[in-house]
Amino acid sequence: DQTIAGVGANLGAATPPNTSLGRIGVGYIYADFQPQITYTTPNFSGFQGSIGVFQPLDAISFAADGGAPLSGGATEHDEPQYQGNLSFARTDLFGGQGNIKLWTGAVYQKQGAEDNTQQGHTGKAYEFGAKLGYENAELVGYYYTGEGIGTTGYFFDSVAPNGNTRDSDGFYVQGSYKLFSKAKLAVSYGESNLDTARGEADSALIETNSSFIYGLYYQLTKSLQLVGEYTDQESEAHNGNEDKENTISVGAILFF
């Protein structure tokens, strides 16, 4: 995601409170920093995998309550969260002018109810991605789909008030081209979708976040990068409400 080091999309088009989210919530889910025990295999001719047990996360009613635990349940954990991924990478294609990376991953977590007002549920999701590069051009494609996993962040709005899980998916595509040794132009489009749960009425719950992002990145020195981005973002709710936002941002990033 080229915009991670820049500004990217805002968390909410109506009231943008953040700047450095990249495509989080508009193409993929933020995986968070979680205590974990993970085993990663050696690299076998470009293939590498990992599997781990993670501290489980509570279901959060983010849209309605601004990040409060889901009332009545989905906060009890009798076993860890599980994650795994597999990737393949080569950097010697087309006489050393091309490279490729493919990856897939999965997350699985059971959640129980802390009282009898809600049933327990299972959250699970899968992802698939590819990055291709040739000389100065690069193309990235990514897709995820899940049940009871939420949107924007792990288990954000993953469960409806009636205890049923919501389905979600999203994707983004990105193309970039290095104009010369220090400048890169990038264009991307992505969206994240959240369905209503079984038996849940349409509401102001977010349905789709989408955006086009255009960026120009110039590496002035080894530690200083100049950034210019234009973002055309739209958010739609299940009841038909929508917000649109156009943002121009310029700045400098110091790496140290």
Task: Explain the layout of strands and helices.
Elements: E1 36-40, E2 47-54, E3 60-61, H1 62-65, E4 68-69, E5 81-93, E6 98-111, E7 121-134, E8 137-147, E9 167-180, E10 183-194, E11 206-219, E12 224-237, E13 242-254
Antiparallel strand pairs: 1-2, 2-5, 3-4, 5-6, 6-7, 7-8, 8-9, 9-10, 10-11, 11-12, 12-13
- Give the overall pLDDT as a whole number: 87
**SS strand fraction:** over 45%
Give the overall shape: globular
Number of strands: 13
Cα-based radius of gyration, to the nearest Å: 20 Å
Global structural class: mainly beta
Order of helices and strands, N to C? EEEHEEEEEEEEEE
Largest sheet: 11 strands, antiparallel
Uncertain regions spanning at least 5 consecutive residues: none
Q: How many angstroms does the end-to-end distance come to? A: 20 Å
Number of helices: 1
Give the proportion of residues in helices. Answer: under 10%
**Neighbour order of strands in the largest sheet:** 1-2-5-6-7-8-9-10-11-12-13
